Amino acid sequence: MNWVGFETLVWKEIKRFLKVFGQTVLSPVINTLLYLVVFGLSLGAHMPQVAGVRYLDFLVPGLVMLVIINNAFMNTTSSLFISKLQGTIVDLLVAPISNGAVIAAYVFAGVIRALLCGAAVLAAAWLVTDVQVRFPLEVLLYSVLVAAEFALLGIGVAIVADKFEQLNIVLTFFITPLTFLGGVFYSIRVLPEPWQSISKVNPILYMVDGLRHGFVGRSDVSHVHGLALVAFSCSLLVAWNYWLLSHSKKLRP
Amino acid sequence: MQTRDDIVLRVTGVTKYFGDLCALDSVDLSIRRGEIFALLGPNGAGKTTLISIVAGLVRRSSGTVEVMGFDLGKSPLKVRASLGLVPQELNYDPFFTVNEILRFTMGYFGQRPDQQRIDEILEAFDLTDKKHTNTRELSGGMKRRLLIAKALVHNPPVVFLDEPTAGVDVELREELWRYIKRLKEKGTTIVLTTHYLNEAERLADRIGILDKGRLLRTGTKEELLREFGEQVLVFDVDRAPEPFPRSLEALGVKRDNGGTRLIYRYQGGNGRLDEVIDSIRSAGISVRHIEDRHTNLEEVFLKLLGRETGWFQ
């Protein structure tokens, strides 16, 4: 195992997003905090409690998950896709770093960025809410696993995509709507049927709700099932990424 | 005697198809340790494809590749660890400085960044004052220097240079040629592709000529010239007599320019010059001027490609 190669790639990827900190950390954190202001402090002030939890406390875990999902995905897609466009992917393809180590390094850096953004949102939220962390280990596990899942998805999408537009399609037509409809801003219990049942098909609901359970100790769906779903998705995505790195003609024609 | 250990790169029956297009057709090639090998060929001949296959950037359709005794199919990481590649296309990572890029490259190849080595390579390619410059601010020539520095910073035993001097100034070309010779002295094996025949003539120990995916011939410059080159003696004479002497005709001497020029072609050391001169004398032909011409590498190259020009025809 080329540990130095792995460490170098991790460090290079972290350094890459830190070089554009304003764009990669500050901007998504501020955007997410705007949701907190609009939905939480403004509209939320007129809302009753949600399932026995103050709306602001209910909202914060959803926003943390929102920023984690987006940034884990964006970190790996933008880095790999720009490398493909610029031709610098050659540096990686000729390096004696195994496919497993490449995947692990990109995921590691994606998780770091996602957690940094999530922690920043949480820190800012603590200024205006008193949301508690009931189960810290569960919060950590959900945050890391979901970040890893979307970082893995980002690697695959970046390898397969030929145009920036295709990256945006995944983000705009799949990730963003599923996140918004995944209970970030509301409890699915307020939805009438069949929307409540339909919502339960949305995998992101389990991630948002799982993290929320770690914070407030309540959830609409089983947080254990959620964890199993995320772990299973991660394994599938690792296999997909490995196959792409080993066989995809998009990287090695 | 050439032993198996002398061969650092062995390509056997390598074929590559891009869809229906056959980019490489069963190429066999062996390159020895410490050799400078130049791959020559027109655009689209398959030079970059061949290099890219060995470097792991392109998958072969069939055939085997061995580098430093490691099979590319079985031990791709060990093969990659032995190589340095200067790709043909300029690329740069806009997030980092020259120094950072070189540190990352050493790391990718499993080496802890060694600032002394990095400074040495920066100095060798006149990049010292650009050390902390972001790569997007470099000129085209500087970017090319950085690509070369990246390929060499980890001291690979085998280096591929894919048209390294394409579009660079004379100064960098000379610097690179000097550095390549220094690498060869240290035992590094170098494979370069080039359009510049003088580059191949000046640097290469052996040359391979590739066209339409087929390796037409490999050999030293001398071997290629001996096998495919011609010597031509051109005699400017008052006028060749009519009928043309049979002795000259039998020797293969031809008339040209309305009979005022006699042309005798021969290959390598097989000329029958004494007989030609004796026959001219005995035919009473008065010679005003003799010119000795010989084929250069470019003409051998064109001849092998079936694109002969000038006096070859």
Task: Pick out its properties.
heterodimer, A: mainly alpha, 0% strand, B: alpha/beta, Rossmann fold, Alpha-Beta Plaits, six-stranded mixed sheet, four-stranded antiparallel sheet, 11 helices, 33% helix
What is the CA-atom radius of gyration of chain A, in angstroms?
Answer: 19 Å
Mean pLDDT metric of chain A: 91
Number of helices of chain A: 10
Rg on CA atoms of chain B, Å: 25 Å
Count of helical regions of chain B: 11
Question: Can you identify the CATH superfamily of the largest domain in chain B?
Answer: P-loop containing nucleotide triphosphate hydrolases
Class from helix and strand fractions of chain A: mainly alpha
Question: In total, how many domains does the architecture of chain B comprise?
Answer: 2
Query: Any low-confidence stretches of chain A, pLDDT <50, length ≥5?
Result: none
CATH-level-2 architecture of the largest domain in chain B: 3-Layer(aba) Sandwich
Question: What composes the largest sheet of chain B?
Answer: 6 strands, mixed
Total separate domains of chain A: 1
Shape, per Cα inertia axes of chain B: elongated
Given helix and strand content, the structural type of chain B is alpha/beta
- Reported by name, the CATH topology of the largest domain in chain B is Rossmann fold
Fraction of residues in H or I helices of chain A: over 70%
Largest interface (CB within 8 Å) is between: A-B, 29 and 32 residues
Q: Please, what is the average pLDDT of chain B?
A: 88
Strand order of the largest sheet of chain B: 6-7-8-3-9-10
State the order of secondary-structure elements of chain A, H for helix, E for strand: HHHHHHHHHH
